């Protein structure tokens, strides 16, 4: 768990995906901690990364850059499909809408909803030998 003066970040693995939960303000001072945690999640999980923003009260342009950077990392890793956002608060949702990112990120009401939306793993390839 990372705790700074105005942000708390936790992460856990659920259903093969990593859920990163953020509470407080994401700004120029706290964004580096979130960037590190999301990069770690993208590197270690084989499935989707879920970023729970339901307790975030403020984001600035640095925070948006961190979220977009994490999205790109998640999308380029083999086997990972999405970076899902959970329950953005009104201030966060407004910023996502104004920047057009509400159409980029998969938005969900709860972490359970986000995890339920993760597609199942594809079946293993069949052995072509007779």
TrEMBL record:
SUPFAM superfamilies in UniProt: SpoIIaa-like
**Domain STAS: where?**
7-118
For this protein, the parts annotated as crossing the membrane are: none
Record-linked InterPro entries? Anti-sigma_ant (IPR003658), STAS_dom (IPR002645), STAS_dom_sf (IPR036513)
Residue stretches in coiled coil: none
Pfam families in the record: STAS
Name the family.
Belongs to the anti-sigma-factor antagonist family.
PANTHER family according to UniProt: ANTI-SIGMA FACTOR ANTAGONIST TM_1081-RELATED (PTHR33495:SF2), ANTI-SIGMA FACTOR ANTAGONIST TM_1081-RELATED-RELATED (PTHR33495)
Protein name per the record: Anti-sigma factor antagonist
What organism is listed for this UniProt entry? Streptomyces yaizuensis
């Amino acid at each position: 768990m990372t705790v700074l003066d105005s942000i708390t970040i936790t992460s856990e693995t659920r259903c093969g995906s990593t859920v990163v939960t953020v509470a407080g303000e994401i700004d120029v001072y706290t964004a580096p901690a979130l960037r590190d945690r999301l990069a770690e999640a993208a590197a270690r999980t084989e499935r989707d990364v879920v970023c729970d923003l339901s307790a975030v009260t403020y984001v600035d342009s640095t925070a948006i850059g961190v979220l977009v950077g994490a999205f790109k990392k998640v999308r380029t890793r083999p086997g990972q499909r999405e970076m899902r956002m959970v329950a953005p608060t009104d201030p966060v949702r407004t910023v996502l809408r104004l920047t057009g990112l509400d159409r980029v990120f998969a938005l969900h009401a709860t972490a359970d909803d986000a995890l339920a939306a993760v597609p199942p793993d594809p079946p293993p390839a069949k052995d072509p030998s007779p």
